[in-house]
């Protein structure tokens, strides 16, 4: 690590509530182009009844309600879910109201059908678990969610594009290298070309189209980049196998090629989404 980089680096807090706040305030906004592209393609708006699996801290839901959609969101992380409640259910939250946004912990197993009829759109913007055994949306949740949607409703899955088109892949390889091999399901791995299609077919869904969206990761400084990336959860297994300080140090080194002269960090990335039908 260069002296300048070492001076700029500070270890990030590992508390779950801090990570959830970092996700909401730093990282989640990087996916706005993906959310916009999907909503535009599927003409999300008044009359849309959306079920979002793994809704995170609620930004994608907030964007959908701003278009006039009625939304339900599920989320396993209680801290992210609390952030989503603050965005969507608090008095005065822009673009949303308690009658048009409903949030539940866990997966879709406890979600009833909306009173106006089945869901017309299901989204799983991530994290996905194509191979099973790790955290994220997998086959059982997709099967349950698709069963709550009307026949032929679109189910959208999203994930990383080709590793060579994703500058952040180098940073995430730190997570894979440092993680204990025995916790392989929780380790980050590059996305396979057909991961989304295989997951959709395993859940009984019919792939019907896909798209790619540029989602660059841009940060105000190196510390923000480290905090944002750690908030994704991709480095949790690495931190359990080593320690947070070592992970943050090696992550800072991996980010060094993307550190610009003004101190900002910029990493071009491409995300891919799949539209399938039940």
Automatic annotation (TrEMBL):
This protein's record includes keyword ATP-binding: no
Keyword terms, alphabetized: Methyltransferase, Transferase
Signal peptide: none
Region described as Disordered: 89-111
Record InterPro entries: SAM-dependent_MTases_sf
Gene3D superfamilies associated with the record: Vaccinia Virus protein VP39
GO biological process: methylation
GO molecular function terms attached to this record: methyltransferase activity
Protein name, entry field: Class I SAM-dependent methyltransferase
Organism from which the protein derives: Streptomyces morookaense (Streptoverticillium morookaense)
Taxonomic classification: Bacteria, Bacillati, Actinomycetota, Actinomycetes, Kitasatosporales
């Amino acid at each position: 690590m260069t002296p300048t980089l070492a001076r700029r680096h500070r270890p990030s807090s590992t508390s779950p509530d801090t990570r959830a706040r970092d996700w909401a305030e730093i990282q989640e906004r990087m996916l706005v182009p993906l959310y916009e592209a999907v909503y535009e393609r599927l003409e999300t708006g008044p009359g849309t009844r959306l079920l979002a699996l793994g809704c995170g801290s609620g930004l994608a839901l907030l964007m959908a309600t701003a278009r006039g959609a009625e939304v339900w969101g599920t989320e396993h992380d209680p801290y992210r879910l609390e952030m989503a409640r603050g965005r969507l259910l608090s008095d005065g939250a822009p673009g949303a109201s308690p009658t048009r946004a409903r949030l539940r912990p866990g997966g879709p197993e406890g979600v009833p059908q909306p009173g106006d009829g089945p869901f017309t759109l299901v989204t799983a913007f991530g994290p996905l678990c194509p191979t099973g055994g790790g955290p994220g949306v997998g086959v059982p949740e997709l099967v349950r969610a698709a069963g709550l949607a009307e026949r032929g409703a679109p189910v959208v899955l999203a994930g990383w594009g080709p590793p060579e088109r994703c500058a952040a892949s180098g940073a995430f390889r730190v997570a894979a290298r440092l993680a204990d091999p025995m916790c392989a399901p929780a380790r980050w791995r590059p996305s396979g070309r057909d991961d989304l299609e295989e997951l959709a077919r395993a859940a009984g869904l019919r792939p019907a189209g896909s798209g790619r969206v540029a989602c660059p990761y841009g940060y105000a400084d190196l510390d923000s980049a480290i905090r944002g990336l750690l908030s994704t959860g991709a480095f949790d297994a690495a931190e359990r196998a080593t320690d947070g300080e070592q992970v943050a140090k090696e992550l800072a080194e991996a980010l060094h090629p993307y550190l610009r002269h003004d101190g900002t960090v910029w990493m071009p990335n491409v995300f891919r989404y799949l539209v399938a039908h039940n």
